[in-house]
Amino acid sequence: MNRFHDLPTYFSGSLGYLRVVGPRSAIGGIAELGFNANADQGVAHRVAVTARVRRQYANAALDLGAGPLGVQVFLPDRNPCCIDRTIAYGATAEASLLFRGYVGLIAGADLVHGGGRTSGAVHVGVRAGSYASVAAAAVTAALGAFVLWGLSRSSD
Which one of 54, 85, 134, 136 has the lowest number of neighbouring Cβ atoms within 10 Å? Predict the structure, then answer.
């Protein structure tokens, strides 16, 4: 029995480029790097490259993407001292609806095969685009600095 979650909750960031190809259309690509931190097994990494297409409507934009995915998965206990890992390969797909290109909802699915098994997962969330992503990154950095400052002072 597999006691590992191959596609657990993860944190990720992505960066890419979209080129406008018409009055309401854009195409491009995105690179994503992510990780999950599980106290029992350690850190596992995630890498994806997706092709994107965006269609602009009156006050909303529909964004679709799909591409290859690679994730680290944990192997069942074969080594008494450590948990072994391997790479599982598969695909990822996402769809999002952005209000004026600033903020919106996103849903996606992943399917990978590796370590002698196939695993799938779905996710939903909130997405920031355009200038909203810059503002979200600044707020996240400020909160992270505040937390680190608080932790450094807690030993006093």
Answer: 134
